[in-house]
Design brief:
Length: 465
């Protein structure tokens, strides 16, 4: 399927989330006969808006009309086990992701970014740098995908010479078929969402690796060489695309390495074809909500992307220096009673919690918990023992966390996030940090991690000095 061949096609879009709605409107605008099919309910205003865009709508279930189609677009939140998905597969109907569909119509160069952690920060930083570079030559950069704005919603406005920075989850990559980024990035792969993949890291990694499955000569893959899984997969063998590893360690053969980005004495160095150039010092951009070892990795990846896109080092340095991090990722909220309060609501897995604990110096009151995803907390036990004075557990998993960290730190269960904030206020001393890094999903109490982080900040900002 291509963008030129959708006119007249009968299409169903399964799931009326943001990306599903955007894909339906895009395809209808390109001449397809589209039915948006939602298992839940839709508001009358939304139904009317979709119909005005030429999209048919059904809610409360998936009818025969949703199954009798030429192809179907499946929203990322719809699991492979869903009855509609199974029915479509049994009929041999081709299933696509919204990302795949948007790519058919994209005239901009595409930077695809995925990984378990760091993809939002890296995508935001790359977008900001590309936008600054584009403003110098009359082009634009677009931040789309898992970052919150559907690719399909913006692709019609993209022009040749623009840059589409597409953040990608494994769910979004699962049903990509021809999607081909000019530059792809793999930040890392650690256990997450394994329920979707029957507990298999191999299946989870395979979904991530789809980001580069269609890349060819002239394209670039950028990957974290310090991630053993990625290094094992991409470090050797033959691939048609250019590979650029990034690392906190200087490679032994750095002087003769063909491509790579690494850290040397606090300075980011780009190596290519036997030559080197120094781009930026970490002490020039690590600050406040953008600090810690994991953010050095994000900066290395962004520098590697910038090099692949031909963006000048001066623009890169300025972009790094101006970057303030992203909302809900180790976001500085305020200083209260001599303690710093940090919102890390985006930490929905144990590895993200570990990164936050590593980035914070001094004594910590840790607020954690939510909906457990089969987490293994053992990797963070040493850090918690070393740094955490009090662990306040919340949400569905509060008793589970209390058991997992028993004997490692002082633990107190809180009935609500508001209650945890009050307890943290009473406990935190001068020079301490109150770190809200849940390590769990938000769906037990909130719609998403953004709502959870906003609520935390409201609670903190309502506290009196």
């Amino acid at each position: 399927m291509t963008g030129q061949s959708v006119s007249g096609a009968r299409v169903s879009v399964i799931g009326a989330g943001k990306s599903g709605v955007a894909a339906a409107i895009l395809l209808a605008g390109r001449g397809a006969s589209v039915l948006l099919s939602e298992l839940g309910s839709l508001g009358e205003d939304e139904i009317e808006r979709l119909r005005q865009c030429g999209v048919g709508v059904e809610s409360g279930g998936h009818s025969e009309r949703a199954l009798d189609v030429d192809f179907s677009v499946v929203s990322p939140g719809i699991p492979p086990s869903a009855s509609a998905v199974k029915a479509l597969e049994e009929r041999g109907i081709q299933l696509y992701s919204e990302i795949e569909v948007a790519s058919w119509f994209c005239r901009a160069r595409i930077v695809g970014i995925t990984g378990t952690d760091g993809k939002t920060t890296t995508a935001t930083l790359v977008h900001d740098i590309a936008a600054a570079e584009g403003s110098l030559r009359g082009n634009r950069a677009w931040g789309v995908g898992n970052i919150g704005v559907p690719f399909s919603a913006m692709v019609g406005e993209m022009e040749e010479g623009d840059t589409a920075v597409v953040e990608l989850s494994s769910y979004q990559l699962e049903r990509c078929v021809s999607f081909r980024p000019d530059v792809s990035v793999l930040t890392n792969i650690t256990p997450d969402h394994l329920g979707r993949y029957d507990g298999s890291m191999e299946r989870y990694a395979a979904a991530k690796f789809r980001i580069c499955m269609n890349q060819k000569e002239g394209d670039t893959l950028i990957y974290n060489a310090d991630d053993s899984l990625l290094e094992e997969h991409f470090g050797g063998g033959a691939f048609p695309f250019r590979r650029v590893p990034f690392s906190l360690e200087e490679p032994p053969s750095a002087g003769v390495m063909h491509d790579g980005v690494f850290l040397r004495d606090g300075e980011i160095v780009v190596a290519r074809d036997g030559g080197e150039r120094r781009v930026a010092r970490t002490d020039g951009f690590l600050k406040n909500s953008f600090r810690g070892r994991h953010n050095i990795y994000n900066a290395l990846a962004a520098v590697a992307v910038s090099e692949a896109l031909g963006i000048g080092d001066g623009v890169v340095r300025d972009g790094l220096g101006a970057f303030q991090g992203v909302r809900h990722r180790q976001q500085f909220v305020r200083r209260l009673g001599g303690a710093d309060w940090i919102n890390d609501s985006k930490a929905t897995n144990v590895n993200a919690m570990r990164q936050a604990l590593e980035a914070v110096e001094g004594k910590i009151v840790l607020i954690a918990g939510g909906r457990d995803k089969g987490n293994d907390y053992r990797p963070v036990l040493p850090l918690v023992a070393e740094k955490v004075e009090l662990l306040l557990s919340i949400g569905e998993s509060r008793a589970l966390l209390a058991e997992a960290f028993k004997g490692v730190a002082r633990i107190q269960e809180a009935a609500s996030l508001e209650g945890a904030v009050s307890l943290a206020r009473a406990a935190a001393g001068e020079g301490w940090t109150v770190l809200f890094s849940p390590g769990c999903a938000s769906f037990d109490m909130f719609r998403n991690f953004e709502e959870r982080g906003d609520h935390f900040m409201q609670c903190v900002n309502s506290l009196e000095e």
